[in-house]
Amino acid sequence: MPNNSEENNIVLVGFMGAGKTTIGKLLAKSMGFTFIDTDAEIEKEEGISVAQIFEMKGEEYFRELERNFITNFRRNKCIISTGGGMPCYKDNMKKLKILGTVVFINTSYDLIIERLKINQKSRPLIKSGLDDKNEELHSLFALRQEIYQSSDKEIVGDNSPSSILEEIRKITCD
Ligand code: S3P
Question: How many CB atoms lie within 10 A of CB 126?
Answer without folding.
Answer: 19
